[in-house]
Amino acid sequence: IDRGHLRQTGTEALDYADPALWACRPGNDPNECHANLDATEVTRDGELKVVPHVRAARPAFDCFYLYPTVAVSGGGNLQDFSDITPVLDPLLAQAARFNRLCEVYAPLYRQVSLTTDAAGGVQREGDPELALQDALAAFQHYLDVLSRGRKFVLLGHSQGAALGVELLARTVEKDPALRERFISAVLLGAAPTVAVGRAAAGSFEHIPLCSAPGQVGCLIAYDSYDVKAPPDPQTARFGSTKEPGREVACTEPSPLANNHGNYRGSYFAMHVNNPRFEAEGYRPQDIETPFLLYRDYFTSRCVHNSESTYLELSASPFTDDQRETPPYRNAELEQAGWGLHLSDFQPALDDLIDAVDQQAKAALAR
């Protein structure tokens, strides 16, 4: 797709009938979500084997995805879409693998940019209303033109998840007919709030947190931290709220996938375009797949305390496990209060996909 005409989009409303404003949608060539997602699995005895990724041939529902912040050099809202390479890091690591269940739609949007200093300090630049305007316009075009009345799941991370929360509040929350098409949402790294000890009565009235396998019309949300580096109340950027009587939402992925053991499949990119966001850990040499796969390596639980609510991730290999630690932590960003923000999706990815699979089957059977 030639995106030369999107080098400077300005601030006027974008026309999402233009296929170039989508990283993923049917008919695009290339459809970025159809990239190679094969993975090399590292088995418990340290052996390597290739696991091909297989897309659904005729998916029965859709996934609408809002990617996280990729503009990290400041300059206000990102208005140049002539090269979408930075979008591919989160797109392929988070949303694209859902295409084994659904047709993925991923619009480009004029997101707020970030600047970061050597200590991990963050300054937001730009107009968040412009980013929200784009997300709402893209979603409305999806509903009116592209969806053909199909049911859908909403996916998002970080800035994309924050936009997803607002999108749900302005559309699905207010429209009973649209709620009939809404399967679920997976919005990580910008968790909305709920009343303390309750699954609802927070950011939404009609969209509770998911609490059982196959539940429809609900939300999966959390901010994750490693068990060895819990949030510091003085520096933590995620997992806490100052709203009285509220706490940040946290849902454990595995029980929603009918999994009561370690995560079924965790995927880690062998290469990222932004080295600042690269995780540290084992990447075997001379493998040809773009992803590394670990099975049954991680567990998690939601932690609730007076300071924060978060998903605590633990590396829990078996006693005879010969695998080295996979690349899921970034020490510099953890010290700056980010926790496992960059890896919110990856360790639990198979469980998240399996949870959505059960929700979709229940929704489509209605």
Terminal CA distance reads 38 Å
Q: Which structural class fits the helix and strand makeup?
A: alpha/beta
| Unreliable stretches | none
- Helical percent range? 10-25%
Order of helices and strands: EEEEHEEEHEHHEEEEEHEEEEHH
What's the count of strands?
Answer: 17
Helix count, per DSSP? 7
- Rounded to the nearest angstrom, the radius of gyration is 19 Å
Characterize the quaternary organization of these chains.
Answer: single chain
Query: Biggest sheet: strands side by side, in what order?
Result: 1-5-4-8-9-11
Mean pLDDT: 94
Largest sheet: 6 strands, mixed
- Described by the principal axes of the CA atoms, the overall outline is globular
Beta-strand content bin: 15-25%
Keywords summarizing the entry:
six-stranded mixed β-sheet; single chain; alpha/beta; globular; four-stranded mixed β-sheet; 366 residues; 19% helix
Characterise this structure.
The chain is of the alpha/beta class. It has helices at residues 85-95, 128-146, 159-170, 176-179, 253-256, 331-335, 349-364; strands at residues 22-24, 39-42, 48-51, 62-66, 103-107, 113-116, 122-125, 152-157, 182-188, 193-195, 218-220, 224-226, 246-248, 266-269, 291-294, 298-304, 309-315. The chain has a 6-stranded mixed beta sheet with strand order 1-5-4-8-9-11, sandwiched between helices. The protein has a 4-stranded mixed beta sheet with strand order 3-2-15-14, with no helix packed on it. The longest helix is centred in the middle third of the chain and has 19 residues, at 128-146. 46% of the residues are buried.
